[in-house]
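hey m, so remember when u said the tokens were messed up on ur end? i reran from scratch. heres the input so u can diff it against urs
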Amino acid sequence: MPERTDGFCLSHFYHLYYPSNYYTPTYPMELKNKVKEAFASHFGGEGTLYASAGRINLIGEHTDYNGGFVFPGAIDKVIIADIRPNNTDTVNLFSIDINEEAHFGLKEEDAPSQQWARYIFGVCREIIKRGGCVKGFDATFAGNVPLGAGLSTATQSTNSNSQKSASQPSITTVA
């Protein structure tokens, strides 16, 4: 797969605009349009759309990072994010599903007050702590994973935003 050269990277996620020689999964067009429209409304212009499939664990919830066995599977639910670098050190987010904005810097003391935004902040901080370069970005996102259903929505949102915000060209994009 080709590597991106614009300083952004993506792994484990499907870019919504595939070259014609790749399998193209289907996403709810209404959700995709809602995310694009919200981005234009909040930040002006266009970002790049990314999606992360919902996931269930048939066995092994919270055991993978302890050396245990897991058996995850993708489901037909998705979170879609529209993301664009903003050439600042500030992250600007809008969650369509809960109709709330969050803004934060990338220093430890800049943690956002909103619990949902702390997931994304935490991943940005971990990338920085491990030597990665994270710059500010604007993002809107929404999903059709039922809130409170025990599915991996937190992981999806942090993954689709953090992988996009890390400036590590060695990670290949999944196109």
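this time it looks ok to me. The beta strands are 14-15, 48-57, 72-85, 90-95, 100-105, 137-143. if urs says something different then somethings off w ur setup not the seq
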